[in-house]
């Protein structure tokens, strides 16, 4: 989509424009990619606190007597292990084990679940759920247009959040949530995020988005808050080895190939994609998602070809994500390669503007010293 007329706008679009954000098309939305600069915003989140508009993300309600059993069938993680007030990282898979979407599930009640899905997958995900939903016992609601979402991320995020909510926030554990008011507005207050830092994500009515955004920026001045765009969000998540749907996983990669084996629970009852994934686990993977560091100043970008560093130099895969790391001062990325080339310490060649540049396969995550568990 190339024209702003065709792009959706979040409830905070005018706020971004007034702050001088550089706006770009993303997943069908007109979104801020940066304000003060990607590196400046990235370091702000690592050192103090940053504010992200993530209202383009989708929100579904799944409720009713059969909600748990339905979500167990639709997802690869074990939804039964989520307690009320807890969140879980999860994913939908197709019958062939490839990924429909990665999601977060919040359990609001015994038979009440709130799902956050990726912006470019809202319609697809809802159709996928609706296609498999039992005719009775489960109620599906697409609430995406009703909600705005703001992420407050960084080591000082708890201090900022404590100033604007009417509930006790200090004891809220990682991947848990509570419900209260933010600046007087009812909201879901979740200790989740995608930056590797202590952080919170707020879900609240879209109609009051500007009020809450402005309030957070004003109150957050004491903590060094800055508005942050998609550029910093991408470099922050990449340093932590977090996956981006559409880059690092999609309907051509299985949950195991992209590294989601840690949430794939084969000991639960049947779920969509289970048989293929189990067979793949037993037979072994032909390709894997690896992390790499460049060995010089070259930058490996999404889509670049990857070659074996052995004498024959065969093409063995492609980069799914890559950028400079502002925290580590290295050029890093993730790539799909044939399994025999995925061993830690292996050298690979990356083709950049017609020249092959050396890189090394390393362990994820690249960055391990964030405040996320603080």
Could you describe the 3D structure shown?
- With about 375 residues, this protein is α+β, with helices and mostly antiparallel strands.
- The protein has three domains: about 5-55 and about 145-240, Gyrase A, domain 2; about 60-140, Alpha-Beta Plaits, CATH 3.30.70.1400; about 260-360, Elongation Factor Tu (Ef-tu), domain 3.
- The chain contains eight helices and 19 strands.
- It has helices at about 15-20, 40-45, 65-75, 120-130, 155-160, 210-220, 230-240, 275-285; strands at about 20-25, 30-35, 50-55, 60-65, 85-95, 100-110, 110-115, 140, 145-155, 175-180, 185-190, 200-205, 225-230, 285-295, 305-310, 315-325, 330-340, 345-350, 355-360.
- The protein is globular.
- It holds the Pfam family GCV_T_C.
- Its EC number is 2.1.2.10.
- This is Aminomethyltransferase.
What is the straight-line distance between the termini?
A: 40 Å
User: What's the domain count?
Assistant: 3
H/I helix tally: 8
Spatial shape: globular
Share in helix: 10-25%
The CATH architecture of the largest domain can be given as 2-Layer Sandwich
Looking at CATH, the homologous superfamily of the largest domain is Probable tRNA modification gtpase trme, domain 1
E-strand count? 19
The SSE order reads: HEEHEEHEEEHEEHEEEHEHHEEEEEE
Protein name: Aminomethyltransferase
EC number: 2.1.2.10
Catalytic activity: N(6)-[(R)-S(8)-aminomethyldihydrolipoyl]-L-lysyl-[protein] + (6S)-5,6,7,8-tetrahydrofolate = N(6)-[(R)-dihydrolipoyl]-L-lysyl-[protein] + (6R)-5,10-methylene-5,6,7,8-tetrahydrofolate + NH4(+)
Subunit structure: The glycine cleavage system is composed of four proteins: P, T, L and H.
């Amino acid at each position: 989509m190339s024209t702003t007329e065709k792009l959706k706008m979040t409830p905070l679009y005018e706020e971004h424009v007034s702050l001088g954000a550089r706006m770009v098309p993303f997943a069908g939305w007109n979104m801020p990619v940066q304000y003060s600069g990607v590196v400046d915003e990235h370091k702000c989140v690592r050192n103090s606190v940053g504010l992200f508009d993530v209202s383009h993300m989708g929100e579904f309600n799944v409720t009713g007597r059969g909600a748990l059993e339905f979500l167990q069938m639709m997802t690869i993680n074990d939804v039964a292990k989520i307690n009320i007030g807890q969140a879980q990282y999860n994913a939908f898979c197709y019958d062939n084990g490839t990924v429909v979407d990665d999601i977060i599930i919040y359990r609001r009640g015994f038979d009440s679940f709130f799902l956050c899905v990726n912006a470019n997958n809202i319609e697809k995900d809802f159709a996928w759920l609706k296609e498999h939903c039992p005719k009775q016992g489960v109620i599906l609601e697409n609430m995406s247009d009703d909600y705005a979402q703001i992420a407050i991320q960084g080591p000082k995020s708890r201090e900022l959040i404590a100033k604007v909510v009417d509930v006790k926030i200090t004891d809220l554990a990682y991947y848990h949530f509570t419900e209260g008011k933010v600046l007087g507005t009812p909201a879901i207050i979740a200790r989740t995020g995608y930056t590797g830092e202590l952080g919170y994500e707020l879900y609240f009515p879209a109609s009051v988005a500007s009020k809450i955004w402005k309030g957070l920026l004003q109150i957050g001045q004491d903590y060094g808050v800055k508005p942050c765009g998609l550029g910093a969000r991408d470099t922050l998540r990449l340093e932590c080895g977090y996956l981006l749907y559409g880059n690092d996983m999609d309907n051509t990669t299985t949950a195991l190939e992209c590294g989601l084996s840690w949430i794939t629970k084969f000991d639960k009852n049947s779920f969509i994609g289970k048989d293929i994934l189990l067979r793949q686990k037993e037979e072994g993977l032909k390709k894997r998602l690896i992390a790499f560091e460049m060995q010089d100043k070259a930058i490996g970008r999404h889509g670049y070809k990857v070659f074996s560093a052995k004498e024959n130099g065969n093409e063995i895969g492609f980069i799914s994500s890559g950028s400079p790391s502002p925290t580590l001062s290295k050029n890093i990325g993730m790539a799909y390669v044939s399994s025999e080339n995925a061993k830690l310490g292996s050298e690979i060649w990356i083709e950049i503007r017609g020249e092959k540049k050396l890189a090394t396969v390393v362990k994820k995550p690249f960055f391990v010293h964030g405040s996320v568990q603080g």
